[in-house]
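Z., the sequence and structure:
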Amino acid sequence: MRKLIRYMTRAALRMSPRKTHQCCLCEHDIGGFISYQGGWKAAPPLMKALEIVGSDLDHFTCPVCLSHDRERHLWLYLQASKLLGEMRGSHILHFAPERHLSAKIILQNPTNHIKADLYPTAPDIQKVDLLAIPFADASFDFVIANHVLEHVADDQKALTEIVRVLKPDGCAILQTPYAASLQHTWEDPGILSKQQRLFAYGQNDHVRLYGQDIFGRIAAAGLTPHIRQHTELLGEIDAYQQGVNPREPFMLFKKS
């Protein structure tokens, strides 16, 4: 029944005569986006109370191409920041590679675009552990990990590995949910079950909830923050129409 409802919802949004939204990845005009598990109103109470900055749960999935809001938002950020053009001829390591975003990046003709994941879902994705990246020092101009760090058991070790494989002045794009109202990142080894993680961190496969110290934590690993706000880069973009969260900044870091 759930699959049938989802199918009918997708069909209704694709065929709606009121094309109030647009997907920047597949470029289709649509009636709206599909919410994530009931949307913001169904989010865990703590997540709402802390006003976690992350995905747009109410406008999450494109009914045509099935892209998620965080994939669309990063695509818009890459274009607006001019980083997309810098990917031509570059070496890119892309963790948890989004299908549509990967295709757009490949069109920029990078010298190397390695798609990596701990649990590969396609033949062209290499099995790579972010805690032990099997590539030489200073191998990449870009490391992309879009909504990945909150899933990693030891984020400090992961950051050390990212810094190691980045070339000097290389860029790490590390979009991650966080709560600006929390002074310190919250993680507790006693929070183990999916239900506990859902209520504590906002999603059942997250292992921590970052606080306002997130930028300092990443900087301590050797990456200089170059954080850009949605209003700064995408002020002319209608976030509602595009199905992205205007509260989510562009989390760009550079290796000193």
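The mean pLDDT is 93. The CA atoms of residues 229 and 249 lie 4 Å apart.

Let me know what you think.
H.
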